[in-house]
User: Fold this.
Amino acid sequence: MNQLLFPKFKFSVVGVVVCLAGLVAGSCSYLQPKVSFNEEIKPLINKRCITCHGGVKRNGGFSLLFRKDALDSTESGKPAIIPGDAEHSEMFLRLTHSDPEERMPYKEDPLTKQEIDLIKRWIDEGAEWETHWAYLPPKSDGSPSNKKSFSGFFDFNDFIQNPIDDFTYAAMEANDLEPSPEAEKNILLRRVYLDLTGLPPSADAMKRFLTDDRENAYELVVDSLLASNSFGERWASWWLDMARYADTKGYEKDASRTIWRYRDWVIQAFNQDMPFDQFTIEQLAGDLLPSPSNEQFIATAFHRNTMNNDEGGTDDEEFRVASLIDRVNTTFQVWQSTTIGCVQCHSHPYDPFRMEEYYKVMAFFNNTRDEDTEGDFPLLREYDSVQSLQVNEIVNWCRSKNQKDGDEVSLFLRTLEPKIHPHRCDKFVNGSLMDNKWIGIRNGGSCRILAVDLTSKSHLLFNYWTGHKGGSFRITIDRPDGPILTAGKLEPTEGQKAVTVPLDLSKLKDGVMVRDLYWHFFNTSIPADRSVCGVEWFVFQKPLPLADPVVSAKYLNLVNAKPLSTPVMVENPTEFRRKTFVFERGNRLVHGDEVKPEVPAALNPLPKGATADRLGFARWLVHPSNPLTARTIVNRFWEQLFGQGLVTTIEDFGTQGEQPTHPELLDYLAIKFSVDYKWSVKKILKEMVMSGTYRQDSRRTDERDPSNRWLARGPRVRLTAEQIRDQALEISGLLSRKMYGKSVMPHQPDRVWQTVYSGESWQTSAGEDSYRRGVYTFIKRTSPYPSIMMFDGSSREVCLVQRVRTNTPLQALVTLNDPVYMEAAVAMAKCVVNEKSPIKRIAGIYQMATHKQVSMATLEVLADLYEEALLNYQSDPEAAFKVLSCNSDSAPEAALSVVALAVMNLDEFLTKE
Amino acid sequence: MKSFNPEHLRNLEASTRRHFLKEVAGGIGSFALAGLMGCGDNKLMGNLLGENPMAVRPPHFPGKAKSVIYLHMAGAPSQLEMFDYKPDLQKLHNQDCPPSLLEGKKFAFIRGVPKMLGPQARFEQKGQSGAWISENLPHLSSIVDEVAFLKAVTTDQFNHAPAQLLVHTGVPRLGRPSIGAWATYGLGSENNDLPGFVVLTSGGKTPDAGKSVWGSGFLPSVYQGVQCRSEGDPVLYLSDPEGINRELKRSTIDAINKINGHHFEEFGDPETATRIAQYEMAFKMQISVPDVMDINREPEYIHQLYGTTPGQESFANNCLLARKLVEKGVRYVQLFDWGWDAHGDSAGNAVDIGLKDKCRSIDRAATALILDLKQRGLLDQTLVVWGSEFGRTPMQENREGKQMPFYGRDHHLEAFTIWMAGGGIKGGTTWGETDEIGYYPIQGKVAIHDVQATILNQLGLNHEQLTYQFQGRPFRLTDVAGKVINEIIA
Assistant:
């Protein structure tokens, strides 16, 4: 920790005054500064005490997690800490006890004399607790507290570009380091291109920049990159790891899921510079905004990226809860850098979150319609223009009769919600819940639909299929032989079909509207062991619009249409609302107390007027008083640009995480982002890349700061999986700039997909779709695209906030042998084939790839390789023919391709320098 | 170039090695391989950077086993036709299942009241130890004194994918590292030319839970299992592009490494030095992997022993490959054989028909693996584990309440059999016993986490100490459970 930025000792003013008085008298007990809880006591407690006296174990009834608990009576009946009186505090006495059975830490080495003394002084000083830095709101006046009048031989004017540099320079100075000079223009341009757009600059862009002498040439480039479409694609790749976006549902079947509209929404949001608070609210609760647009619904697919288990016999509720837990954990990971997952089973061992608080947060998320059904419901249905007109017509007609019912009809046509899924049925007689998914009843059999609210309902609408004539059904009330609520025929269907029948509510004489129903199926003409039909879902609906035969027909047409459908969030209406309980020891089957939605007490309160639902929760996350969101996000941006965060544990701002290296800079950026820039992602990124800190040369000139904590040189990190492939395609001219749409399947080796039961296969995309940016590559969770995985991409099973960068031989095999790199190499060779001499061609290839002038030493090595390859292909034209994809057998071109392949494997190519 | 001639390539490799590589390699030593990574201490990811993450690391305590070969029968074979002899079940054959066994239970497919299904194989006691074993496993019968049987293993997942994830990653959901990843993270690898954790599959499909069962989860991806295949490239992207021969590839890598060497001098980034070493290893793997995956050069008596036919993807071939891999110092070899589900919906899925064929396809090879390891003196240091994700019910399956066309059994969680051999395991033991119909354990019940703790223990790793910091807390394979099964340790 930088002591200058984060002073270790806080002098007590009173102490100093008294001390001065005392000095006169010749003695002073106040010479020592006040003990800091956060810096001296908390780390000591975390290391030596908290395992037995924390949130999990509270041995002897003593816990040091919260002050209130720590000062409470213990099992002995006495408190262990008496503020101001260490000599009578059991905690202090136990540290120094002579009996090894009594002395703490139990059966461990004793604390050092110095440590014991610290604890004593801390108790004597009142045993104050301090709030952990991350839970205090960020504070900044825009410059470092120890800003110097920069002096010395270093010409700092070259370095200081904006306030960021004031902070980093102060920290460098405190650590006796000096900034590096600015990187060469070509290196800097490639860096900022890769960081902002994920792609290298074109040769033209490079030439323009190198010859642009204007003062603000760099800024102009930055502005143009922020405005380019590639910007959104690059930052979407980053966000989608956190959103655990994938094109399949996960688990055993891992069948495909159509959710690419969400990926496109993220790209567009970044490109439009949607303010991050809005970006947050729409993803967590877009469906709860007033009159949500399709886009706002699509945004909520963020939390529909949880996995869905379609395997036969699985308990849908078990996996619904698994998704729910994942949503809570992911939300806290992504926005709060907080590991709330621990709190499922017990209070947090180190951080101030109590177990019931986990379930209070879960209560915000526990009332969405999704129930781990194979259909991935709810789905937003995006109708074509003709259908949309029909939807509007019906909805307007309904609204003209009854506004609220019209709104419900609108929601139903857009999402087919709220509907009832077969897993709510039980008491199957001569039939079963087929594969735990569909109602499958044989002739004369039945099942029970539990507790249906029939208030104001007039129709049953259900989706079924059968290939047989002669089927019929009947629904009885209360008992299998009870009064008949409705009955009807089951015409054979082509595929699945939704139909409607009226209900006879006159049978509900007693006025009790919530009833168990029994659904019977008949077809005497089919074999006894066949189901009459399959039913996927059903819903009891109000008279609008089904009571009107003309509108009803149009309505049913729309219900049966198959528009593009994307999993989204839809909130439960009152009759479907779930209660939330504490799960004892994290076991969902053992319910503790019921809880209501509430945010953790250690953080800011729910803002005034915020509703106790996902929307209120989302507003709470981005409220100015939330101490974590803005810090978390700017830290992640910083990590993306600089290779590591200002807090290096970017997933954890809790007391077990690292302290920020530059706490004042972190707060400055958090406030700049959330207040001054009103959550503009582009503005905060611009501020970062405009800084002198960012623009430094990345050469390591001395060994004093090997991990570059103090930022005295520029970032140097290996490119991401997507960037490596995109870059090869871009420099060779193969990259397609087509945006959006269904995920694509570029070439992958045979036999990579061998998934059980799904019957799906990898169908290599045709034409330019094989050369799209990596962000559009189809991701199958149980068998992700291998070359992306080898470069540390995420399989998107769970939220990943940081890709660990590895360096393995399998990566070398990808860039040396994956056919796409050979293809790119051949294309590069073609680009330079008209240069006059082989040396010029080689130099041209090197420059295309790295944007650098080739050095003599490098040129010599590449020329040797060229010579050897040339001789080889001159004597073996067939090999040249193969290299050049059977288009030519030109030995020079084949040899140049080998050189290009080598260049694409250079460290400087694979690295952002 | 799609086919390799290893002999030729080995010669080439030796002759084209260039002088400067030695210099560069010398330079790497001081940067790339300096220091060992302590298990459980990954506070700064930077610790991993610039070091060889596969360097051999000392175990927590001296372990008996250096390597593990794990034979997983995906789909869940019936213990009642293989290891768990239940004559009383025969007496109940075709009777209605008593309600006491059904109340409060949930099955994957059984609905209503199923019939009991007697054992569909004859059993005999074998060896000095007198272990019961069925006629379906005549070869394994001959070596039961090498084997320790765990007959009362339990799980809590009744679907294949989550149950497989529990067995291999410690939790029934995706996202955690597999045992092989934990083992290589803990101990590194003894072989620099081959991956430390190799996966071989047979039966035509990968396991239900997909590649996650050999994934690295949140551990660095370098620890994930590398699938070696009998058809196509043995490792993805292993063969050179068309038209680039070995000499040219050698020269290409030499050129890359030479320029990277200059670059390293200029920028001083230890990642560059690591990259130079990894390109070297990639080149070596292009020879060593096809070499080790080639069983053509094995003598005839070995093919006889295992029942292998070169060139096809089979469990027998994979057993022989597993032996070759551990012989070369590979830490963890994971085999998956798909096709053991036995619901009775087809002859191939019947416990009296298809199961016998599956047993035949593994019996000789699994036995040969143990005998071969033994004759090479490798059995003591190689732990062989045979098992699956759960067992089968003593009841006959009645999917959707209907009679099935063949004898099948549903998924059973309460008790199933796993066996281990070699690697410090006490041969000729049986631990755990089920009731008279094989439904519940009555003695020696062990959980999946106990099996995992035992495997790590044999490697010299304490399952409670082998941790990794992720999302702000330390994670381990056995979560908050796991107890070493001392009863089967020699």
About this structure: Chain B is about 30% helix and 15% strand. The domain at 64-231+314-488 of chain B is CATH 3.40.720.10 (Alkaline Phosphatase, subunit A). The longest strand of chain B covers residues 67-74. Confidence is low (pLDDT under 50) at residues 1-50 of chain B.
